[in-house]
Design brief:
Length: 209
């Protein structure tokens, strides 16, 4: 922790580069509760080093630390939050490396985070919205038909979890309408088209149109 305090006092990222291998080597030798604590140190230090340097080469190590840490967490909320952090880390990697497998793993982690998160948690709406964006990116890349239906389902769930007075509700309704229109284009089923029209009516009303 001494090196971390030095970094906090000086902002010198080289101190973090010295600290990260110490956390990593300690975690590799430990087990049980000590391993959990040391992995938390790896994650904290690598996260801060990434934020300080924007060094994309750190993201695979950060993702690996999350993968090792998550199974050691028993509390469902903590586990869900770390799964979401893993998903976000993988998304950053995908933006940099354009590897489809990275995006697929990001989506899997996002799905698991939502499945683990208690229904009444306030993060649910924003995490669902993030899942919609990830699924849409994969759909546009691969053209897999089944994703169209999952996107619409996730967008509906996003709206259900979003408060009526939330400033992002209109934007999320727009994503729902777009997902439903894509579903109509793929299936020619009138039901999603009617739902999309209704969503756009809500958007127009909210904007005073």
């Amino acid at each position: 922790r001494i090196l971390h305090h030095i970094y906090r006092g000086t902002g010198d990222a080289s101190v973090l580069r010295e600290e990260v291998p110490l956390w990593r080597s300690g975690a590799a030798r430990a087990d049980g509760e000590l391993r959990r604590q040391l992995l938390a140190g790896v994650i904290l230090s690598v996260n801060e080093l990434y934020e300080a340097t924007d060094d994309g080469a750190l993201l695979p190590e950060l993702a690996e630390a999350y993968r090792a840490w998550i199974p050691l967490l028993e509390d469902p909320v903590s586990r869900a939050i770390c799964l979401d952090d893993l998903s976000s880390t993988l998304l950053k990697s995908y933006i940099r490396d354009d590897e489809e497998s990275t995006l697929v793993e990001s989506i899997a982690a996002a799905r698991e985070a939502l499945a683990t998160l208690p229904e009444d948690r306030p993060e649910r709406a924003s995490w669902l919205n993030g899942l919609v964006l990830r699924l849409r990116a994969l759909s546009q890349r691969t053209g897999v038909r089944a994703l169209i239906f999952e996107i619409a389902d996730a967008a509906r769930a996003t709206i259900a979890a979003t408060a009526a007075d939330d400033s992002e509700r209109s934007e999320r309704l727009t994503r729902l309408a777009t997902a439903l229109e894509d579903q109509y284009d793929a299936t020619k089923d009138a039901a999603p088209l009617r739902e999309a029209i209704e969503a756009r009516r809500f958007i127009a009303a909210a904007l005073g149109g």
